[in-house]
Amino acid sequence: MKTILMVDDEEKIREVVVSYLQKDGFHSLEADTGKKALDLVRGGNIDLVILDLMLPDLSGEEVCKSIRQFSTIPIIMLTAKVTEDDRVQGLSLGADDYVLKPFSTRELIARVKANLRRAHDDTLLAETISFKGGDLTLHPLKHEVFKNGNPVALTPNEYKLLQTFARHPGRTFTREELVEKVLGFDFEGDVRAIDQHVKNLRQKIESDPKSPQYVITVFAVGYRFAGGESA
C-alpha cells in the first residue's frame, strides 16, 4: 500500500483529499506545517507528497527544495499561483507536477496515480547501460544513475526523461512526445514544461550544461540524446 503525505494548513482540504486517497486504497499521512512535512519525509516510507505552497512556517518552495536534498520521491504542488514563472520556479526546485487551486479532487487523485506509475517504471531492457566509455551509467533495476562513477540524484521525472532518451539514442523527440512519455497523456500544462525538466537533467548529467554532450536541442522540434555507443 502506497503512503501519500498531504501537506496543507487548511484542515478541511486535508480531510477531503485524505478521504479520497483512502477510498482509492492509499495510506495517508497529514502535515499542516513545512517542518512537520520534512520530519515525516525524513522518517521514510513516504511514496509521494502533495504539497501546498502557502504554509504558516516554511513556503512550499522551501519544503520542496529541502526534500530534494535527500529524497527523489514525487512531489505534486498545490498552488493558487498561475503565472508561467511560478510554475517554472516550482519545476526548477524539483516538483514533478502542478495542480492549481481550486482543484478537482478526482483529478488530483488521478495525478497521484500517474506520478506513482512514472516513478516506478524501470523498463529498460539491459541491467546496465552506459555511454561514452562509462561517463554516464544507468542501472535500471536499481533505479540508479552514475556520472563518472559518482551517484546522481534524479527526481522521478528526470529519471523517466533520461530513461526515455537512453532507450532511443540518436532519436529526436518532439516536446509533445516527451510530455506524453514523461508527464503523462493527461498532463494539461504547457508543453514547454518539459524544457525545465531537460534543464534540470542537464545540470546533473552534463559536464558542461551550457554545452551539452548528451541532451541536444533540435531547433524548432525538441531534443535528441547523443549518447554514442552504449553497452
Q: In summary, what is this structure?
A:
The chain has 231 residues and is of the alpha/beta class. Helix content is 38%, strand content 21%.
Describe what you observe in this structure.
The modification 4-aspartylphosphate is found at residue 52. The chain has 231 residues and is α/β, with parallel strands linked by helices. The chain has helices at residues 11-23, 34-42, 60-67, 84-92, 105-119, 156-167, 175-183, 193-205; strands at 3-7, 27-31, 48-52, 75-79, 97-100, 129-131, 136-139, 144-147, 150-151, 172-174, 215-218, 222-225. It has a 5-stranded parallel sheet with strand order 2-1-3-4-5, with helices on both faces. The protein is globular, with a radius of gyration of 18 Å. The termini are far apart. The mean pLDDT is 86.
Describe the structure using short key phrases:
231 residues, alpha/beta, 12 strands
Name the beta content range.
15-25%
The 3D shape can be described as globular
Task: Tell me the strand order in the biggest sheet.
Answer: 2-1-3-4-5
Report the strand count.
Answer: 12
Question: Helicity, in percent?
Answer: 25-40%
Assign the structural class, choosing from mainly alpha, mainly beta, alpha/beta, alpha+beta, or little secondary structure: alpha/beta
Arithmetic mean pLDDT: 86
Taking the sheet with the most strands, its summary is: 5 strands, parallel
Order of helices and strands: EHEHEHEHEHEEEEHEHHEE
C-alpha end-to-end distance:
36 Å
Query: What value does the Rg take, in angstroms?
Result: 18 Å
- Extract low-pLDDT stretches: none
The DSSP helix count reads: 8
